[in-house]
Every structure is written in C-alpha cells, then in structure tokens.
Amino acid sequence: MEFQLLTEGVGAPQLRLDLDGGSGTAGRARAAVAAFLRALTRSCLPTDPGAPGDVLLVVSELVTNAVRHAPGALTLCLARQPGEVQITVRDGNPVAPLARPPDLGAGTGGFGWPTVQRLAREVRVVPHRDGKEIHAFVPWDPRDPAGPGGATAPDGGGCGTSAPPSRPGRRPAADSR
C-alpha cells in the first residue's frame, strides 16, 4: 500500500491516500490512518484518550460510505489543525449523504453518517463537478506531554498554539445517506 505521510515540517503530520474503491479499501485506509495517528501522538497527545479512536472511526465510516455509495476511486486526506484533525474524503458521486433510519434487521446500514456527525465538531459536504468532498473536523485538544493529568500546555504542547479556526458561514452538515 502506498500513501504519502508527511511527518516533519509545518503542519505535520499530513496524509494523502489514493484508493481504488475496491475490495479492502477501508482496511487500507485504516492502516494508513494508524500510521498517521502514531506520528501525531508522538508529538501531540490529546487530552481525550478516545480521540485517536474517534479519528479512526470517522475515517472508516466515510471511506466505507464512499465505497458503498460512490463506486470508483477516492482520495483520503488527513491533516493536523490547531485543536483538531481534518479528515477529507473525495469521491466521484456528487450526491450529498442523506440520513436514513438505522437498519437493525437486514444489516443495510444507516449508522455511519450519524456517527460521523456525532464525533466531529463540524462536517461539511462540498460538491464538485466530478463528485464531492466531505470534510470532518474531529477534536484533538492537545495536552502537555510533560504535565501530569493532561493539562493543556501554554504553547499547545507541540500541537499548534491556537484554538480551532472559526469558520464563517458554517452550515449544518447535509443529512446522511
């Protein structure tokens, strides 16, 4: 599996992974995200120990939805931002996800999109001529690696020095698939 993982420099770590959308796509995405999370936690521990799992779950749900509802190639990108991890999935289906009741009987889904919306601070669907991008911003509040109890470091603990950026014009995420 080939992916680009930037581990040094401004904004590191960053990940870009181009996927074919075929069998095993979600597993390949999870493996790449695990490498991203290892790089991130070496320099930036979150105050919430569940944050890495939240990032991994959001990626898994977004990639699985793309494979299921937008057959074909897709791109996954992750980037550390101050106070959060930005996850972007670009696929070839321009239709925004729509919420639907979870299916407890036949196992046809309905759980992923609400999970993404619950775990992310913000979710945006950006349509493009040839598909869409879904941006999810998952909290990653830094703690001071040297301080007991995970107190936030005055300098962001190597994670950036400011709160998550305010996003003017924020609108509610489109409803799920």
Report on this model:
With 177 residues, the chain is of the alpha+beta class. It has one domain: Heat Shock Protein 90 (2-Layer Sandwich), CATH 3.30.565. 26% of the residues lie in helices and 23% in strands. The protein has 3 helices and 6 strands, in the order ββααββαββ. The protein has helices at 25-43, 51-69, 112-119; strands spanning 4-6, 14-19, 74-81, 84-91, 122-128, 131-139. A 6-stranded antiparallel beta sheet has the order 1-2-3-4-6-5, with helices on one face. A hairpin with a 2-residue loop joins strand 5 (122-128) and strand 6.
List keywords for this structure.
23% strand; disordered C terminus; 177 residues; Heat Shock Protein 90; alpha+beta; single chain
Question: Mind sketching the topology for me?
Answer:
Layout: E1 4-6, E2 14-19, H1 25-43, H2 51-69, E3 74-81, E4 84-91, H3 112-119, E5 122-128, E6 131-139
Antiparallel strand pairs: 1-2, 2-3, 3-4, 4-6, 5-6
Helix pairs in contact: 1-2, 2-3
Unreliable residue runs: 150-157, 167-177
CATH evolutionary superfamily: Histidine kinase-like ATPase, C-terminal domain
Which geometry do the CA atoms define?
Answer: globular
Q: How many distinct domains?
A: 1
Structural class: alpha+beta
Mean pLDDT: 81
Q: What sequence of helices (H) and strands (E) makes up the elements?
A: EEHHEEHEE
Number of E-type strands:
6
Helix content: 25-40%
CATH architecture: 2-Layer Sandwich
| Largest sheet: number of strands, sense, barrel closure | 6 strands, antiparallel
**CATH class, please?**
Alpha Beta
